[in-house]
């Protein structure tokens, strides 16, 4: 097979240019990682395993500009709090929907008080589950905080310093415990409010039906 000399020469001339472009692209993608460790700012072109879950910034090695900011990984307790807050949002949405349905269709959709009470059963289950979950989270957080405080106290009694990581962990767990206690109080208040809402809805239903004694044996969801 005959080779075109001009084509071969062009390929030879272009090869270094292509390699240079590849090297340039590789260099432009290189980045630095910066995070806090024991109160000190640490930067490296490689992220060690012990820093993977820490909050960090990613900086372009070529431009020196920050390209990303990564939050630290959530703890188990923080994930539990986030789940509880998500459950709260679902509960609020369900409450709005329940009110809309009961106001618009009370006379036409429900033939009995028992049928009306089924509308509230899902919300009642959600609130009860939220109360139990918050109670469990509070107990778990409190036990963990007590253990950390005992360890920190023993170290101080032994004349050893309490590390900054341990002190930060104690502060973080305390804040999480306060948030979870607030969530628990909110859920317990909502459970009482739900009982009041059920009783009020029953009263309106009976008045709109014009029969105050209709299905009088039905009881609010509990």
From TrEMBL:
<protein>
    <recommendedName>
        <fullName>DUF4124 domain-containing protein</fullName>
    </recommendedName>
</protein>
<feature type="signal peptide">
    <location>
        <begin position="1"/>
        <end position="21"/>
    </location>
</feature>
<keyword id="KW-0732">Signal</keyword>
């Amino acid at each position: 097979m005959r080779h075109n000399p001009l084509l071969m020469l062009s390929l030879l001339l272009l090869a270094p240019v292509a390699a240079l472009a590849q090297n340039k692209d590789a260099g432009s993608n290189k980045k630095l990682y910066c995070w806090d460790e024991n109160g000190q700012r640490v930067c490296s072109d490689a992220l060690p395993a012990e820093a993977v879950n820490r909050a960090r910034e990613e900086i372009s090695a070529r431009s020196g500009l920050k390209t990303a900011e990564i939050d630290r990984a959530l703890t188990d307790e923080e994930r539990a709090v986030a789940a509880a807050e998500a459950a709260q949002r679902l509960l609020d949405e369900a409450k709005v929907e329940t009110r809309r349905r009961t106001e618009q269709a009370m006379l036409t959709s429900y033939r009995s008080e028992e049928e009306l009470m089924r509308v509230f059963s899902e919300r009642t289950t959600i609130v009860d589950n939220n109360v139990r979950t918050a109670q469990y989270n509070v107990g778990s957080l409190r036990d963990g905080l007590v253990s950390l405080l005992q360890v920190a106290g023993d170290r101080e009694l032994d004349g050893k310093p309490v590390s900054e990581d341990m002190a930060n962990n104690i502060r973080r767990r305390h804040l999480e415990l306060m948030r979870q206690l607030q969530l628990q109080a909110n859920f317990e208040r909502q459970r009482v409010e739900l009982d009041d809402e059920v009783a009020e809805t029953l009263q309106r239903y009976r008045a709109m039906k014009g029969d105050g004694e209709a299905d009088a044996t039905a009881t609010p969801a509990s």
